[in-house]
Protein: Glutamine synthetase family protein
Amino acid sequence: MAGNFSFDQLKKAVSNGEIDTVLACIVDMQGRLAGKRFLAQYFVDSAHGETHGCNYLLACDIDMEPVPGYKAASWSKGYGDFVMKPDLATLRRLPWLEKTALVICDVLDHHDHADLAHSPRAILKRQVKRLKDRGYIGYFASELEFYLFNETYDSARKKHWQGLDSASPYIGDYQIGITTKEEGVMRRLRNEMEAAGIPIENSKGEWGPGQEEINVRYAEALDMADRHVILKNGAKEIADSEGKSISFMAKYNYGLAGNSSHIHNSLWSADGKTPLFFDKNAEWTLSTLGQQWAAGQLKYAKEFTWFLAPYINSYKRFQAGTFAPTKIMWSEDNRTAGFRLCGEGTKGIRMECRIGGADLNPYLAFAALIASGLAGIDEKLELQKPFVGDAYQASRLPEIPKTLRDATEMLSKSKMLKQAFGEDVVEHYVHTARWEQFEYDRRITDWELHRGFERY
Structure:
């Protein structure tokens, strides 16, 4: 829960005029920052204790439409308030916004001030506590990919998101020359995130024209999820200020590579000093604990896929030959695999889950990986032998759910996730998934019009 700005530092900065605005933000179901802009002096004097928001914010779709049918919030219940409790340990200055600081808030019940169970941050906190109770720390890192465009969001909208001018005209994967042309945004993104307390290791070109990847240094799971959502929000704001735009869609163009969010994860001792997955004498140098953790993630991958791929568009990314996985298996350093073992033979040994797209909510994704890993440990599961070869061409491997509808049904039947998250929490997100499917099923797409307007 580490920001880079203490409350005492904030008070001093407010008093001398360095900070005049504080963003108090929750994370919604879509993984976006939502909240209020406070006059900094008022935040320091009063609102740092708590503020309030409408509970429909965790019961609406991506268009901010209130969705009927949730138990937690509805028109019949009047869409009342919940408490937004600033976690002052997350305070940080935002260099890309003038005289502005940000704090992430926990979402609490308005009556008893308990964590609201279906809040994404509360879901992850519960799984982190399960790790802590066993003497573990979960270290996570999410690699975010996105497309950068020489378009404003307004110009992209006016083009109906078609024929956009990407930041580079051809694929520049790892190429320094082409990515130098994108440094106006990328240099700011690296340096200003670092200044905001989000340590950046590197950025690079990815496998699409104008596609970028930025890597944040690993951290404890809750810290990493906080970093992830601030990075996504800040990247769009920085790009917008430069007259550019960014898309984190899993698959914005059928013919181009999708945007992933690979998630690296491992367990360490409670003091953060001893890697619990490394055993130099074990097969693959992966300890028994690490093997059981990985086996749990493999066993339950179909059940938690929705937490890694929450939209209709998410499933367009899973195409053979695109560096996006299609099969549920693990392998040693093999990018056709759904799960890849990284850092073999070192203290940094870890599993990389390659299923998730850049459209995921990190709190939900991390929580699902923790829950399934712990289930693997509790069930003492044995890790299968690693797959060798091209997983795209292997016919007998279990497949990642092909559609949102398939993933939703797997989630709805998951006894493991209901036990780990609570039945009401799982039902809340199943309802979210089914609404997304319903909204899509009744819409007419450009593809349908192109094929059928004249020819049907």
Residues 61 and 439 are 10 Å apart (CA to CA). DSSP finds 14 helices and 15 strands in the chain. The first helix runs from residue 7 to 15.
